[in-house]
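Rotation project, supervised by the postdoc (A.L.). Task for the rotation student: set up a whole-complex structure prediction and record inputs and outputs verbatim in this book. Inputs entered:
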Amino acid sequence: MELDPSAVQLLSEDGTFTEHPEYPLGLSDADIIGLYRRLILVRRADVEAINLQRQGYLKLWGPVFGQEAAQVGSAAALQPGDRAFPQGRQFGVGLTVGIDPAEMLSVWRGEIQGGGWSVEASGIALYTFPIGSQAPHAVGYGMALQRDQKNAAVIAYLGDGAFGTGDVHESLLWSALYKSPVVFFCENNQYALSNPVERSAPLPLFRRSEGFGLPGVQVDGNDVLGCYAVTARAARRARAGEGPTLVEALTYRIGPHTTSDDPDRYRKADEVATWRMRDPIIRMRDFVLGAGLVTRADLDAIDQEAEVCATAVRAACVADPAPVQPVQMFDHVYGTRPQHLEAERRAWLAFNEETQATS
Amino acid sequence: MTTFVTALNTALSDSMKADPRVLLMGEDVGDLGGVFRVTDGLIAQFGEDRVLNTPISESTLVGAAVGLAMGGYRPVVEMQFDSFVYPAFAQITWHLSRFRYRSRGQLTMPVVIRVPYGGNIGAAEHHSDSPEAYFVPTPGLKVFTPSTPSQGYALLREAIEDDDPVIFFEPKHDYWMKEDCELTQREPNAPGARIAGEGSDLTLVGYGPTVKLCVAVREYFAQEGVSIEVLDLFKLNPLEINLLVGSVTRTGRMVVVHEAPVFGGFGGELVARAASDCFAALKAPPLRVGAMSTPYPAAALEHEYLPGMDRIVDAVDASLRYGVTT
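Outputs recorded:
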């Protein structure tokens, strides 16, 4: 799939920056360098996670490779009080807002469910693996913000595959009806596991917004500046009470769906090669160097920082997991355990004490 | 005299007055007041921000309630009819029931889903189901079902104040049942079951719409000198098992009645508990009376399909006769 003629692009494939009259960038040089830095950190940490999975330290991994600009650019537009609802691949979103990568990987180590981070402190809701099912949560949370007059925005991260679900379409409708302050941010990475977007979407996804009564825009998802500017504008609208926006960031999943996937079975190598040429990092590097925002030494320093980050990720994942008492599986099911659950817990404890005593 | 509808309406109104974070959401709950009028007058009283007349999107009705709960609100969702909860089943089982657990207590889900359920009203297809057995075993959910107006008031207030999600099944056949009662809240931690009529020969267990039948069967047998104890289980989860086990231990006989099909129904759990917890006291095999294990049939057949007094009486007779060789 190619960009729609209407798509917003501030940074072209060759690293040329062009202002867009409707989507002002409004970032300082330091902010722009900060975006580049995050792209590098996310790329490096993601590669480390793939390696860790191959070495058996993660049960599974859903690589971000290729989608860094969409995640970093959109997440950088979030402000304190905003709330993001990720699906399961938004490692780059978490890193951008400053969540410890190890806390994001604990799910993939099979230690816990949902995520290891504080939702309130980070502004990032827990991973939601059933596709598209977090969209109604974003709408409802936005309705709560609206009732509390918080002037904050909600961003719902969705893949192209989520646009096959009823929940996403109901949510588009509800957000427009109730003016819930949601930015639906679609990372169209062109594959719902193996299904290409051409086989699930007869029209560009952003055009679905019209029938539901909210604006829709497509942005070059490999252009971190464009993703930032488009998300920032949609979030401003939301915070100002002007309602939701559907953003489609057209990008490409260079890696597999997860480390259990074999993408060679459903897509051609030359397609992947074409999209590798559109890498979000190469064009940003060309831009920050060409515009004189950084020196090569600065870039090397960022690469070094990424190595340190990767080392920390590895150390956290290779270390023995925090000891979990199995009996904790009975906790937090309810505020107060019902009789039947308490009875099961006691029986479980008694059984284990007995087997330990006799073994 | 207070009808079930008035009692529930008063519970909603009182809860909304008591806590500004209580919201109502559902199809036709606004100006119409709901198809059963349970939300009658509430939109006029509390406004559109607190009484949301929503599109027909049951999945998002629950999903948005999850999001509102994350934002500190306490949504009360109305499903128009029992089987209309099915499009929301994924949101209920994926998310509503699990968020406290998967967030390790960071989040709670104070959401009530009101579901008018049961048949016997001559309704069209998909309007008469008893789907409680889909929800009772789901970890993280509570399931309440009142049998009288005063109980409906108290239980609904309690459900709305609960920080855990409650599926609240309302016996729609009894919406116009009248009771001479005061509408008062229950004591905290009050039991989830009650003895609706004492007796010593057999324990007859019902919930929701079958309690009134059990009470009628008790009166019928009283004329014959048979003493039946009726148990009303108004919380199916958490289940107040001690009252049931105590009663069956005393009587030695048990018959469970629900409108849902017997096969795989909630009655099986109760029979299993009687078998495991008071086996030695049993004088007869515990029996279940319920609907046939068919889809809910056309209205013309529903009286053959649903458990009526005749089939309950028959089961009670069978239990009383068990082992008698005369």
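Student's summary: Strands of chain A lie at 83-85, 154-159, 182-188, 191-192, 195-196, 216-220, 245-250.
Supervisor addendum: The CA atoms of residues 252 and 274 of chain A lie 10 Å apart.
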